[in-house]
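Exam review. A common question shows you a sequence with its structure tokens and asks you to describe the fold in words. Practice with the pair below. Do the first one on your own.
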Amino acid sequence: SMTAKKAANKELKGMMKTVRIEDIDSMHDEMMDLMDASNEIQETLGRSYNVPDDIDEEQLMGELDALEADMDFESNSVPSYLQPDKETDLDSELNLPAAPSGHATIPANRQQEDELGLPTVPHASIPP
């Protein structure tokens, strides 16, 4: 058991050589700074904005009910933006010309285009 104590003592002394008090103090100071910053953030986030601490929920619900009554709030009424569209004849409202029918003819002075809208490559005629 004496050898175990000596071994433990030697290990502790070895550890104490690697640990410096300045490092511990520095780390402790950093931790305190972080804790202060954290507390400041928590305090800021928890700040109230002129909301009284003693809010009476029943009174608040009563005010809400009164507001709903003032607005003539009925559960069966549907807001205008949720009502189905009226069947309107958009074509007559917009007064657009009729769509053309058939294929458009390509003017003679205009180059032919392929399916991608690019000019077609003229085919070279090779004499026999």
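Now try the second one, then compare your answer with the model answer below.
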Amino acid sequence: MASGGHLRAAALLLAVQLLRLAAADPDQDGGTVIPAESRPCVDCHAFEFMQRALQDLKKTAFNLDARTETLVLRAERRALCDCMPTNSLR
């Protein structure tokens, strides 16, 4: 099967990468390190994202509520006009 060969090749590549990471010099600088005190936490970003999402949902719910109310009033008016004889409107 060709997929078995692909799976073995992927496993081999993964093993080679893991060996390279294990053999890497631990003192090697991986880039600029930002102190924890000066970087915002992931939870703060998630909280801000959820706040914005909640505000968007509230706006959507309000718009849907207003639209539903408009449609209900329109349907009630249409039903009222349909059931009244036209000569009683004069």
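Model answer, second protein: Helices lie at 2-23, 42-83. The CA atoms of residues 55 and 61 lie 10 Å apart. Full marks require stating both points clearly.
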